[in-house]
Amino acid sequence: MGQETATPEISVIVPVYNEEDSVGPMYRAITGALDPIGRSYEMLFVDDGSKDESVPRLKKMAAQDPRLSIVCFQRNFGQTAAMAAGIEHARGKYLVTMDGDLQNDPADVPMMLEKLETGYDLVVGWRMKRQDKLVSRKIPSKMANWLIGKVTGLPIRDNGCSLKVYRAEVIKRVPLYSDMHRFIPAMAIPLGTRVAQVGVRHHARQFGESKYGLSRVFKVLLDLIVIKGLLHFADRPLAAFGRIALISALVAVIAGIWLRGEDYQVVAMTIAGLLGAMSVFMLLLGMVAALAFHENHRDA
Predict the structure, then answer these.
(1) What is the DSSP letter of 160?
(2) Local confidence band at 226 (pLDDT 50, 70, 90 cut-offs)
(3) Which of 157, 224, 231, 250 is most solvent-facing, going by the fewest CB within 10 Å?
(4) Do the domain assignments include residue 5?
(5) Domain of 229?
(6) Residue 10: is its pLDDT beyond 70?
(7) pTM of the predicted model, to two decimals?
(8) What's the chain's average pLDDT?
(9) 198 with 242, same domain?
(10) Residue 272: per-residue pLDDT
(11) How many helices (H) and strands (E) are present in the chain, helices listed first?
């Protein structure tokens, strides 16, 4: 980590993985975009287990600029884990995330900050003229964005764009795991988050190769199922779990009546007992979830 200075207003979080040629230009692009606006900021570069010269080059820059800090992973954990680590370490009032491959443009950050301060909690960038391969990146992305919008009910144009600006008190309450950084807007829905979208620039990759491809499609689909479940239970958890408890109780009663003969008495009692216990458990779970949900909103 670099030297800590006074608490900054803005924290810029940049996950990097084998981006030795990009870290220098990215640092200069960030400082070039934020120095003119006259607001205090820090830069958090999160190294996701790079095996090239990314970390040594970052350390040289951090020795010259105390605003730059480095978080290092011992191995590659993925982009979401790197973002989560950066968010955890960030000290700013406003947090900015972006990719470390120079495809996102830090020059868009001041405009996004202005948009955030008009009354939003999260500003999402959407790449207006995306400079990526059509078959392997753009077409799957369009399909994924359409599907995510249908499932979550939040019509975000470009969920995969890492360039986002958040209020710290909001994003620090959003759990991040697996590959769920692209679902941040949807995961923030239960918090009552006000979301805006703005068009941003997108550049062709200058150095290295993309670390992600079609292999992540299946992860996205699995994560989307999880997100749908979370959104379904989040708003009214007692009602949702209560329905499951009621179904379990009804099946327990039906099983007890259907298998009431002497030959099946033990089986009937066992099934009815298990389903009855499940019914009580789900009801209690719903009560706990409801308390947690209301406590979370009270602290918001």
Answers:
(1) T
(2) low
(3) 250
(4) no
(5) 10-233
(6) yes
(7) 0.70
(8) 80
(9) no
(10) 74
(11) 10, 7
Residue 222 lies in a domain: yes
Give the Cα separation of 186 and 229 in Å (integer): 12
Looking at the fold, whether 163 and 245 belong to one and the same domain comes out as: no
Count Cβ atoms below 10 Å from residue 88 Cβ, excluding itself. Answer: 13
76-85 confidence digits (pLDDT tens): 988 889 999 9
Distances (CA, A) of 155 to 55, 147, 196, 221: 38, 10, 11, 17
The residue assigned the tokens 């200069």 is 28
Residue 133: how many CB atoms within 10 A of its CB? 11
Report helix, strand or coil for 95. strand
The strand pairing partners of 198, in sequence order, are 125
Whether residue 23 is found in the same domain as residue 139: yes
Paired tokens of 186: 């949807």
CA distance 40 to 38: 7
In a shared domain, residues 259 and 289: yes
Q: Indicate the number of domains in the chain.
A: 2
Q: How far apart are CA 220 and CA 181, in angstroms?
A: 10
CB atoms within 10 A of CB 104: 26
| pLDDT confidence of residue 6 | 79
Please give the structure tokens belonging to residue 145.
Answer: 């964005």
On whether both 198 and 270 belong to a single domain, the answer is no
Letter for the amino acid at 135?
A: V
- Exposure string over 66-87, b if 16+ CB within 10 A, otherwise e: ebbbbbbbeebbbbbbbbbbbb
